[in-house]
């Protein structure tokens, strides 16, 4: 299994510090003189984390707060123009990277994208086959409800509960796949992650649709 090269931000390891000329140790702040280096654009590299899908989010949060403190604009007021520029770039990467990596779904999508997987919104031909019947029944019930059939209400609530249970089991499935990927670094597992993420997105949309309908129904008639 070929190990994928890190896009951008690679090569940081061997970089020499622009300030002191020593090896910066691949750290955001030079290991030798402490000056701010050009930030890595890869979120995992930036935070100094191993590229895993099951992430210790408390550790991530600690790093986030520590870096926020060290990158505070007040600390750069008297620094060189280049360090001020790096501090702005680093702050943007810090915030975007934290938002993405702390969310288990966005984190997986990020790794999939790095690995060249297409993670666009799912096309109708990708509708999970096991959901086709479910979706068909739901659309029938929604239609009946709009036509004033009271019984449809119960069906829709049942459908919502089924979708919520599905989402829960999908999340468990994802966690299992995440662990498997972390253990094996196998692209085949990422392929499975992508399929399950698509299914989850589909189910999430169904939940939203049903909840919107139930909320609308709760409103007094106009
Ligand atoms: Zn240095």
Mean pLDDT: 87
Instruction: Write out the distinct hetero groups bound to the structure.
Output: zinc ion
Which structural class do you get from the secondary structure elements? mainly alpha
How many structural domains can be distinguished in the coordinates?
2
Q: Give a quick account of the main beta sheet: strands, pairing sense, barrel closure.
A: none
N/C terminus separation: 62 Å
* Number of DSSP helical runs: 7
**Beta-strand segment tally:** 0
Strand content: under 5%
User: What is the CA-based Rg, rounded?
Assistant: 24 Å
Helix content: 55-70%
Order of helices and strands: HHHHHHH
Low-confidence stretches: 1-12
Task: Chart the SSEs and their pairings.
Layout: H1 43-47, H2 57-70, H3 81-101, H4 104-114, H5 129-146, H6 151-184, H7 187-218
Helix pairs in contact: 2-3, 4-7, 5-6, 6-7
The structure holds zinc ion.
Brief overview:
This protein is mainly α.
Describe this structure in words.
By secondary structure, the chain is mostly helical. The protein has two domains: 15-102, Helix Hairpins, CATH 1.10.287.110; 124-218. It contains seven helices and no strands. It has helices at residues 43-47, 57-70, 81-101, 104-114, 129-146, 151-184, 187-218. α4 (104-114) packs across α7, α5 (129-146) packs antiparallel against α6 and α6 packs antiparallel against α7. The longest helix is centred in the last third of the chain and has 34 residues, at 151-184. The chain is elongated. The N and C termini lie far apart (62 Å). Residues 1-12 have low confidence and may be disordered. It binds zinc ion (ZN).
């Amino acid at each position: 299994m070929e190990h994928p090269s890190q896009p951008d931000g690679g090569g940081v390891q061997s970089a020499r510090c622009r300030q002191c000329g020593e090896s910066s140790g691949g750290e955001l702040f030079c290991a030798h003189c402490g000056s701010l280096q050009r930030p890595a654009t890869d979120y995992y590299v930036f935070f100094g984390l191993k590229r895993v899908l099951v992430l210790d989010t408390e550790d991530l949060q600690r790093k986030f707060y520590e870096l926020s403190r060290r990158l505070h604009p007040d600390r750069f007021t008297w620094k060189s123009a280049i360090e001020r520029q790096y501090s702005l770039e680093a702050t943007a990467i810090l915030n975007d990277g934290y938002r993405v990596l702390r969310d288990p779904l966005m984190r997986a999508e990020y790794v999939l994208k790095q690995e060249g997987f297409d993670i666009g919104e799912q096309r109708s031909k990708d509708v999970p086959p096991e959901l086709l019947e479910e979706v068909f029944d739901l659309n029938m019930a929604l239609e009946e409800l709009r036509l004033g059939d009271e019984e449809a209400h119960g069906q829709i609530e049942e459908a919502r509960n089924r979708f919520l249970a599905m989402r829960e089991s999908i999340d468990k499935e994802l966690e299992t796949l995440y662990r498997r990927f972390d253990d094996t670094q196998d692209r085949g597992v990422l392929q499975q992650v992508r399929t399950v993420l698509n299914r989850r997105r589909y189910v999430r949309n169904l939940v939203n649709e049903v909840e919107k309908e139930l909320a609308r129904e709760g409103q007094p008639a106009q």
